[in-house]
Known about the structure:
By secondary structure, this protein is of the alpha+beta class. The protein contains two helices and five strands. A five-stranded antiparallel β-sheet has the order 4-3-2-1-5.
Amino acid sequence: MNPAVWIAILLLFFLLFAGNRRRGLRRRRNRQKGKECRSPLNQKNKKKMGKRCVVSLDGTFSSPVTGVLEGLEDNWLSVRTGKNGALELVNLEYVNKITELPEKKK
Length: 106
């Protein structure tokens, strides 16, 4: 192939991945400065305690956590997941959204 084509493809990939990285760095910097207030998020999450929810997380390789919300202390959310009832702790700084799942009809 022509070297100009390869250069154009590499530039395209670089711009796509660099843009996502910059956005993530900007979010982290804002969190560290304390611009995001987590107390309203805590109040909304307290209403969902004991219900089955999906917790979507920040990050490229992070997968959502599905389970029953059990506790909320400081900046940590505890989620009971799976059939064996494993407990997972999630830092609220990395939570994008929490979606409540509808109850199964019997």
